[in-house]
Design brief:
Blueprint (H helix, E strand, L loop, with lengths): L1 E5 L7 E5 L9 E10 L2 H8 L15 E9 L11 E4 L12 H4 L14 E5 L3 E3 L6 H5 L1 H14 L8 E5 L3 H12 L3 E6 L2 H9 L4 E4 L6 H9 L2 E6 L6 H7 E9 L13 H5 L3 E4 L5 H14 L7 E4 L3 H10 L6 E4 L2
Parallel strand pairs: 8-9, 8-11, 9-10, 11-12, 12-13, 14-15
Antiparallel strand pairs: 1-2, 3-4, 3-6, 3-15, 4-5, 5-7
Helix pairs in contact: 4-5, 7-8
Length: 334
Amino acid sequence: MRAIELQRFGPGGLVQVERPLPEPGPGEVRVRMRACSLNFRDWMTVSGTYNPRQPLPLVPLSDGVGVIDAIGPGETARQVGERVVGLFNQAWQDGDATPDILRQSLGGPLDGMLREYAVLRADAVMPVPAHLTDVQAATLPCAALTAWSALVTQGHLKAGDTVLIQGTGGVSIFALQFAVLMGARAVVISSSDAKLERAKALGAWQTLNYRQEPQWGKKVLALTGGVDHVVEVGGGQTFGQSLLATRPHGHVAVIGVLSGAQPDATLLPILMKNLRVLGVMVGHAASMRAMLKAIDAAQLQPVAERVLPWTDAEAALTELATGGHFGKIALTFE
């Protein structure tokens, strides 16, 4: 089979190779891949900034959808022909994750989905709603589950809540869609008026251009009286404004570090407003099942408009790093 390996960090480090066709063992299934999607973590992995000590070679990308074409001995829960997505943390079924579970993630340290066939744990693949295309289904394992975990599993989002969403990338657009689905009000910030108009079309309650409003935290506070939830994907340069925008006893879900990992912010709002600040490392299988059920019931349509061949993965990752996309970037297999 063909696969794309990360053989060295940085530009030119992705190389197409031939690998033996893997065979599933007990408790495993083999999936013939149909589509993958990209996350910022994938670009950080390939560039060497996520884990510079990651052993190489590595098959990157954590998200993908495919069809089961072989089942390991004794496995009865899954069937050949099922279209499935793989769970990002392959060993995380429910509850709190142990350090060992957090090391069982696809696309580093485990080989990921940028290959024609992947062998995965049978209890860590799940059938996808029939209304989704392969490209749409491929967006679910990280971006969608992270947004769902942040707002629903950990955030206990309810109708009437107000959610502050940063940007219009994969996690952010899913957070917007889930907020609307749950009857919450979403405030979306972006540097692009065009993207903000698209966010309004998806149901955003209010939008704000943070280039025009550098102190957007104060603006959001004045607009809402303090949001109930923040989907914090920016990191260092946005964390302080997020704390300012949040109501007393509100919830800040720390997800990304797009503007750096070192926050330039005082911690006083966390203390003085008794904020709940939680890190979100994607999510477990129980959350994934609940999310898939909700997506199916609502016939929700993930947003992935930029689609390239899987062999153009390096170009797609470079495009992802520029931040010009809306929603997700996906790759398809021939």
